[in-house]
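For this section, I looked closely at a protein sequence along with its fold in token form, which I now present.
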Amino acid sequence: MLRDKNLIPLSHQHQHALALCVRIERASPIPESDLSAWQDEITLLCRSEIAIHFNAEERVVFPAARRFAELNSLVDELVTDHHNLRKEFARAEARILSEIDLLKFSQGLSVHIRKEERQLFERLQELLSSEELDRMGQELAESLTDASQSCVIPNDATKLRPAK
């Protein structure tokens, strides 16, 4: 299903985060000497986009979804994911993620995003009227005002390298 225009800003942010996840997975195993650079990039993405993104979902999207009993358990899962991912962002900011932790973080973030895209957003597009989606879009636009609108530029240690 095509993404409704009102959810596209969140989907674009999901793409930015997924790009980071793909780069982490492709770079693995990550040398210990590069861990700090990866954690810097994760911290930057969190501060410039993901923290604002999570708040917008929790303030706007999740309450709309909770109106439908069938989505309550999914929303509960997503709220728990946000809680756990915030802990991982804090660990990245404290520079205490190991190479294994970094890979697990990447996989967890990727699974979370796919749940939102493939389950929550798809179902909301079916359940909400176009007027309700438009209202949600207006609220999201206000909530996402301070978020970055572009991908974080990888640094020398975190950019994709050609396959050998």
Remarks:
- The chain has one domain: 8-143.
- The chain has a mean pLDDT of 92.
